[in-house]
Amino acid sequence: YHVKLVISLFAATLECVRVDMMQNENKSDHHCHLYEGKNNILIVRRAQEFQMTLQFNQPVNPSDNFQIEFYIGINTYMLNGTKIIISFGGSQTGNWTGRIIQQQGDACVVGITPSADAIIGKYYTSVAVIGSNGISRTQKDSGTDFYLLFNAWASNDEVYMPNEEERQEYVMNENGYIYQEESGDGRQWYYGQFVEGILDACIKILDDSHMPLVNRGDAVKVCRIGSAMMNSQDDRGVLVGNWSDDYSLGTAPTFWIGSDQILLQYVNKGPVSFAQCWVYAGTFNTFLRCLGIPARVITNFNSAHDNTGNIVTDLVFNSVGNVLELNERLTRDSIWNYHCWNEAYLSRFDLPAYQNLGGWQVVDSTPQETSDGYYRCGPCSVKAIKEGMLGYQFDAPFVFAEVNSDVYKYKLNSQTGKTELLSVDTTYVGMKILTKSIGGNNYGPMDITGTYKYPEGSSKDKETMKNAGRTYKAHLQYDDEQGVEMTLEIPQKRVKIGQNFQMAVVFRNLSEDTRTIHGLLVGSTIYYTNIQRAQFKQETFDVTLKPMESEIQVVVLAQNYMPKLGCQSSLRFVVTAKSMENNQDLMAIQIVNLKSPELAFAVGLEVSLEIFVKVEFTNPFPFSLYNVRMAMQGPNFISYREKLYSEIATGTSITWMESSVPTRSGNTMVYAVLDCSVLGNVQGNWAIGIQA
Prior knowledge:
- This protein is of the alpha+beta class and 692 residues long.
- It folds into 4 domains: 2-149, Immunoglobulins (Immunoglobulin-like, Sandwich), CATH 2.60.40.10; 171-465, Coagulation Factor XIII, Chain A, domain 2, CATH 3.90.260.10; 484-595, Immunoglobulins (Immunoglobulin-like, Sandwich), CATH 2.60.40.10; 600-690, Immunoglobulins (Immunoglobulin-like), CATH 2.60.40.10.
- 15% of the residues lie in helices and 42% in strands.
- Strands 2, 4, 5, 8, 9 and 10 form a 6-stranded mixed β-sheet that branches. Strands 22-19-18-15-25-26 form a 6-stranded antiparallel β-sheet, with helices on both faces.
- Residues 1-11 and 471-480 have low confidence and may be disordered.
C-alpha cells in the first residue's frame, strides 16, 4: 500500500514535456517572416506579444504553479534584465508579462509580451513547474531559443515609426540606392538584412565590441557602438578603410554589391578590406535594419570635414607669382565631393522631452574623427542640427560643419606670415542632401536638404547660426565687390569617360574700368574626397575685360586625362586669377564627375521556373582592359558569383550568363559590377518579379 501511494503521488506531479515556439505564426505577426535560417528559429520583436504552446503530461489545474524563464548571456540576473521569469499561478514579477490564451487537454497556449526596453539578442527558454517536491525544469533545447529585436511597430518602443509605408522602406526593404552625384546617379546596394547568418553576424559585432548586455536594450547605445564597430580603425571592427588606388590586398570598394558578403566574411575572417564612405554606410544600414532600427543612407554633397573644431571650413592659399595655390600644410580642413552616412529613427528618450529632438538621427561609421576615444559619430538629432542646438549629444558640432559650415578662403602673406581673408562662401557646403525615395525598388532621389538647414540667408538661417555660437557674416571684414566675378562653366550636363569636352572661364566686369586679368587653369584627377591624384592639364591665360561679360573657351581632351584616372572617375578644375589694376584675387573650382559605361542585362524565364540572366559589357575605350573582375548576385535566386577576364580588347564585348531557380516569390533585383585598375563604378541592375 505504501508503494502504491508513492507512485500515485508521483503521477500527479505536473511536468512540461514539450515547448512549441510557434515560429511560423509569430514570425508573420512580428514582421520577421523574411529572415532566413536553416533551423527555423523564432525571431520576434519586443513590446509585442508572441505565443508559445506548452505541452504538459496532464491538464493544468488552477492550483498549478509554473513559470517560463528566459535567459540571455551566461551570468544572468533578474535585476539587470538578463533573466526573465513569468509566473502562471503565482505573482508576476518584472516588466515582461504573460497570459494563458487557451487551454485544451494537456496543451496550454500562452502569450508573452517582452518589455519595450528589453535587451535585444538571442535568448534561451526554460519552463519550470513549482511543486511540493521542489522545482522541475525543462532541459536546455536550441529549438526553444529565440531572437528578440527592436520594434518599429510598437508605440512604446524607442524606435517606433508611426507610418507603415516608411516602416516597409526603412526596416523591411532589402534593396537600396546610394547617391554619388547631385544629378541622382550613384550605385545600387543590396542590404540583405534577412540573409541567413546576417542576424548572427550583427549580434557577433555587439559581442566583439564587449558591449554589456544590459546596454543592448538601448537603441541609442546600440547605434553608437555599431558606428564604432563598422570601422576597424581602433577596435578590429568590420571594415578597413582605403582611399588610395591600391586594393591588391583586398576588394576594391567599388566592387562590392552589398552588405551580406562583407558581414559573412567578417564573421569568418575578421576585418574586411576595403571600404570607403558608401560601403561603411551601406553595411551599417544592414546592421541597423537587421536589429529592427529604422535606417536609411544619406549622401551630403560638398561635405565639409572640419578638423579644427571651429565649425568653419578654412582654406589657406599661397601667392605664387600672380596666382594663388592651395597651401596643403596650413589647410587642415577639407571638402569631400560627397560623403555618405546613415540616419536612424529614434525617440531620443535620453534628451530633454521639451526639445522634441526625436526622429531621424545622424550616425556615421566612416572613421573621420574620434568621439569619446573611438572613431564613431552620433546619434545626433537632425532637428538639433537644423536649429543650431549643438550642445546635445552626440557630435553635433562636427555634423553641423559637414552640412552648414561657411568656407573661408585666406591668402597667406609670405612676408609677414599672416593670413588675409579673401572671401566667404556660405552656400557651397551641404549643397544638396539626398536619400532614396520611399517605395519598392524605385531609385528616385528624395531631397532632404531642408531637414538639415533653412534657406541660406533667411531669418531662420541667421537664428540657427546664432544658436550655433556663430555671428552670421556681420564680423567679416573683406571686400567682395571689387569689380570682377569669375565662374567656371561646363555646358555639358554629363561627360562620359573617354569623351572630349569644352568648358568656359566666364568673367563679369562690374566696374566701369577696363581690367587686365592674368590667370592659371589647372586640371587634376581626384579621389572623391577631393584629394588630388594626378595633374593632367595646366595653362595660363591673359584677358582684357571691358565693362561687360567675357569668356575663355578651354578644350579638355580625353587623351590627356584618361591615363591619369583611377578606379573612380572625377576631374577637378581650379582657376586662379588676378586683376592687375587693383590686385583683386579671383578663384573658381569645378568638379566633373565622369560617367562610367553601364552593364546591359537580359533576363529570361523558362517553363521549369529556371531564370537565366545575361550580362553584357563592351569596352568603349581605345585601349585594352586587363584583369577585369565581374560579380553578379540576385537575392533569392542567384547566389553571389564572380568571374575574371584577363583582357577585354578595345571594342570587344563579353557576355556572362548564369541560371538558377528562385527560392522566394516577389519583387527582387539582380545586381552586377565590373572593376579593374583603371575603371571602377561600372555596374547595372535589373528588377525582376518572381511568381509563386
